[in-house]
Structure formats: structure tokens, C-alpha cells
Amino acid sequence: MRERIQHWQVIAFGLICFDIIAISFSYFLGLWLRFDFSFGSIPQEYLLRYARFLPIYLVICIVFFWFMRMYRAMWRFTGFRELLRYALASLIASGVHILLITLIFGRMPISYYLVGTVIQLILVVGVRFTYRFYIEVCKKQGPDIEIPESRVMVIGAGDAGRTVIKDLLRSSKVKIHPVCVIDDNPNKWGRFIEGVPIVGGREEIPRRAEEYSVDQIYFCIPGITAQEKKKILDICKETGCELKSLPGIYQLANDEVLISDLKPVQIEDLLGRDPITVDLEEIFEQLTGKTILVTGGGGSIGSELCRQIAAHQPKRLIIFDIYENTTYEIERELREQYPKLRLDVLIGSVRDSRRVNQIFETYRPDIVYHAAAHKHVPMMEFSPNEAIKNNVIGTYKTAYAALKYGTKRFVLISTDKAVNPTNIMGASKRLCEMVIQSIDTVSKVGRPELLPFLHAHQENGELDALYEGEMEAMDPDDLKIESTKDRKGTGTQFVAVRFGNVLGSNGSVIPIFQKQIEEGGPLTVTDPEITRYFMTIPEAVSLVLQAGTYAWGGEIFVLDMGEPIKIDTLARNLIQLSGYKPDEDIEIVYTGLRPGEKLYEEKLMAEEGLRQTQNKLIYIGKPIPFEVTDFLKQLEELAKASYENSDHIVEMVEEIVTTYHPEQGTVKDESEV
User: Do residues 490 and 406 touch, judged by C-beta distance below 8 A?
Assistant: First the structure.
């Protein structure tokens, strides 16, 4: 089939024709100028040398220009780099001209060399910037487009700020005018970038925003620390202007800073700490070529785990979740983005031990990330037995199966609400931590037969057991390890990763606030003093993956999340970032603490100490000691009571978790609801 000629090929042919004419004219003009524009005065020997060498030189130029990509550029985007490359190509070609014509045909007048070189440079380079000139200057004189004007203050007079200003000025599709620039470097004050004045440092932001009637503020300092960014944004949000920010410094490396890169400032920009960084090489070595199971893989944390795992070339990724809608979404996303990924998506409950065992027996995962859990604090207060069944018993059954089928590493997703819990959800997650610490102890002594059978389902009158045969009588001495040489271990390492509230996750406060702002308010805050630790979903997942590389077994990993922040402060910041004024444009209403909520969350229990890992933001907490044999017996009773929907489940949990102190009003009897 005959290929259709592309538009750029037509342009390239036209440029070749122009270059032939321009090059021929340039050196003839040098010869003609030398003899006072009198053709008859030009000596025949000069004309003959010129005529004989010209075809050779034209071939050299066209071939050389082609390899220098001078016929394939997108002219509307040509910039200073292209200008330098084209000028250099023209000068090199002229140098070749001077050398070859002199050596082969003889010396020419000096004016021939100089004028020919200059005129060729002007014509060859100039024609290539004619269209760009038209875009930059002439097109701006066209009819105005009816788009509302916006006046912009740019924060940062560096490369990113300069590039954004240039992009704004050359855009013909929008009427966004940069009116002033802010930079903390006094050496830049009073100077101009593309005609836009640099009017002072950060302290000038409020005054200059009013003076220049600024509508939007563009934050264009990609390499700044989180603490400094927060300080500047705290000043910016007082102006009531809409804020946008460059997402990162990587665009500068590729010269890709455009207006489209600017995003609305996110609330996490105001948390005042640097994002967590991880050792990607360690994570890559851990995940590559492994069979990995993610329970709760359709949730906020689980789905992000699946994304990051899929990017590290696992042998196989298994997603296990009970909710098919979000699970289907992450499956479709991963299959589109990673078509070669061996992906299995399974529906089921971690409470169903037969289903769990079937999955472990079939796939034999090397690593398990256990993210499946009920996490909603007030809802679990009204359904405490469900919190125990799903969180505690589900964790036990999944961890037990991991031990039975030779999984190398089991990572539990825990929460800071497990620290001195005041609600059943937090207490259940503390029980989960105790479960994996107990099973890790059993794993280290190589005695899995000591673990009890926790029944949940019965078929044909037989208990649903994880191990066949009778469980041995348990003695505390069976779990003692006097020295490292006594470790007979099964090889499975069990760890927990504890972190705070996740920005943007299902049920988190930020999406709720954003929706309330869209609806015009009010924003509902439970208490003006309530505080929480926050991190982003990618940060939380990075911590989980990094913790897996540090695991020996039995640890509780904790992220240094910086200082806690008031929810009321978050709400007010988000209102201001949206261009409104709190309590004036959008009201904040205090609704009172919900069942099970407490004002302050803690990262570690008072009895726990901290030991820093290689990552300065990841710590290992020294766990509270407890008698494993007693705990496992209590766990049997708790499991039985939860499946009988006991009215006294909260009291039972309170007896096992000594740090659990339910708030007044906590629902203890589901029959009363």
C-alpha cells in the first residue's frame, strides 16, 4: 500500500529547497559584494571556483543538516537549544566550505568567506524561527478569546518559575497573566523575568497579592524542603488566592515544566515534613521473582500495595478481597498497565479458613501483605463481634496458613489506634499484633503443632482445622528460646507495620471535607482539639514494603510521622486552599466525638521503646511482653465467643488487652442497639 506523505515531510522538502537557494546566494553575495555589486568585475577564476565547488558543498550541507535533525523539528516548540544547534551546524558547514574550496580549487577573497558564512547563518537559522516568531508575536495580535482573565503571582524566580512564566506569556488559549514574582534572594529583587517584576521575598506575599490584584498563586520551587514549603504556603493561604504547585523537581531534569504540570496545592503540602524515602533497590530485591499475596487488595492501602508490587516484577501477584467492585477496578488498572504481569484476582473472606487454605495450598505465596480488616471506628463500636471475627480471627487464620504452607514473610498492616486503644477497632488491631507476635514465637521454635484450632465453620459435624491431627498440650517452656542456636524455625517471619491516618483513603477525612466544600459547607469536625498523625497512601505503602526488608520476626515497625495535626486546622487550611474564608464563606460545625474516638492518637505505648532502622523515618518498637501460652488460650475463648455473638465481647477484649480502656458510652451489648 502506498504510504501517505506526511505534512512534516512536505515542510522538510521545502526547507531543503530553501537551504539550496540560501547557501548558493550567501556565498555568491560575498563574491558580488567584494567587487562592488558588479557582476562583470568578478574575475572568471573566482566564478569558476565558486561554480565548481557549489554542488559539492550543497550535498555536504544537506546531508549534514539532515543528521543534525534540522529538517525534522517541531518548529512551534523550537527554543534556545535548537538555536544553538542550528547555528553550530551552519558554522561547521561554513568551516568545511572554507577548508575544502581553498585546498581543492584555490584561495577566494576574504569577504567571500566572511559574508558567505554570516549570510548563510542568518538565512538558514532565521527561516527556522520564523514560524516560532509568528506564534510568539503575530498571533498575539489576533482576536481575543472570551476567557476570564486571571492574575498570577509566581513564587520562585528560578528555572521552574521562569519556564512557567514563559509558558503563560506564549499561551494564546488562556488569559492568565503573570503580574509579579516572589523570591527570597535579595539579589533578584527589582529585576525582571520575561518582563515580569521580582517584587520581594515571602514576607511581601500578602501586600503584593493585594497590590497586584492577584487571583492565583503558582508555587514553582520544586526542590524546597517540606518544612520551608509549609511556611511559605501558610503565608499564601492567608491571601485567599487559589494555590497551585509543581508536583516535583523531576520535570526540570527533562525540561518539561509547563502550565499543565501545575496542580492544586494538596493538603499534605501543609503537614510540614519531608515525605518518607525508601531504598528501592532493597525493595526490588525483595519482591522481584516472588509470589506475593495481598489480602484486602481492593482497599486503599491494599490497591496501592498492588500497584507498587506490580512495578517490581514479581513472579506472581495474587489479590484477595471480599468486595468485588474495588477489586475489579484495581485488576483492570493493573492488567492495562502491566500486560505481562501474572495476576490472579480472587474473591473470598479471610474468615473462611477453608478458602484461605485453598489459596495458600494452590499458590504457595512467598510474601503475604495482610491488609484485610474492618477499619471504621464508630461502626465497629456497634458491631464489636464483627471486628473480632474479621480482624483478629481473620488475621490468625491467614497467618496460620502462611506458617503451614511455608510463606517466607508475613506483614500485618496495623494502626496507631492499636496504641492504648479506646475503641474496639483499635483493640482488635492490637490483638492482631499479639497474634502475629505469638505465631512468630511459635515459628522460631519450630512447633506449629502447638497452635490452637480456632473454629468458625463446621461441615459434616467436623471442626474446620488448619492442621490435621490433634493439637498438643501447650507448656510455656515449649516456647522458650535460650539462645539463637535453639531456633529451629519454620522460616516464616511475622511482622506488623503501624502507621497513622492515610490521606485520601476510603473513609478518610480529607475526601469528606472536599465534598463538603464543593457543596458549600458546612465542614463537620468532631472536636476543635482532636489531633491525628497523617501520611499519604504512597508513604504508607513504602513503609510497609521497606519494613519487609528489615524483618527478622516479631517486630512492630513504626513510621516517624512528624508532629500530629489538629483536624480543625486541616479543615481550615483546606477551606483557604480552595480560595474561601473559614467561618465566613464556609462554616465549620463541631459535632462531638463519635463512639470510640479519642482526642489524641499515640504512635507507641508508654512501655515500648524505639530502635531506629537504616531508614531514619522507620523505627522498631520494643513490644510489651505477654505470656504467649496464656494469650493463645484466651484467643480460643474469644474466637468462640465472637462466633456466638457474645454480649460480653468487649469485656473479654478488655481483659486480654490490658492497655484497652473503652470510652464511656461504648456499645458492649449488640442486642441493645
Answer: yes
Strands 531-532 and 291-295 come out as unpaired
Rounded Cα distance, 640 and 649, in Å: 10
CB 194 within 8 A of CB 163: no
Highest mean pLDDT among 27-36, 118-127, 285-294: 285-294
664-673 CB burial, b ≥16 within 10 A, e <16? eebbbebeee
Summarize the confidence of residues 218-240 as an average pLDDT: 82
Minimal CA–CA distance to 566: which of 224, 267, 233? 267
Query: Residues near 559 by Cβ (< 8 Å), separated by ≥ 6?
Result: 276, 498, 499, 500, 535, 539, 540, 543, 617, 618, 619
CA distances in angstroms from 561 to 192, 601, 605, listed in the order given: 40, 12, 16
Neighbours of 90 (CB within 10 A): 26
pTM strictly above 0.70: no
DSSP H/E element including 458: strand 458-459
* CA-closest candidate to residue 558, choices 584, 538, 579, 540: 540
Fill in the amino acid letter for 309.
I
3-state secondary structure of 434: helix
Q: Which tens digits make up the pLDDT trace of 41-71? A: 888 888 898 889 999 999 998 888 888 877 7
Q: How many H helices and E strands in the chain?
A: 22, 24
DSSP 388: I
Spell 203-212 as b/e; 16+ CB within 10 A means b: ebbeebbeeb
Residue for grid cell 500486560: 339
* Residue 582 DSSP one-character state: B
CA distance 555 to 266: 33
- Specify the amino acid at residue 68: M
Q: What is the CA radius of gyration of the chain?
A: 35
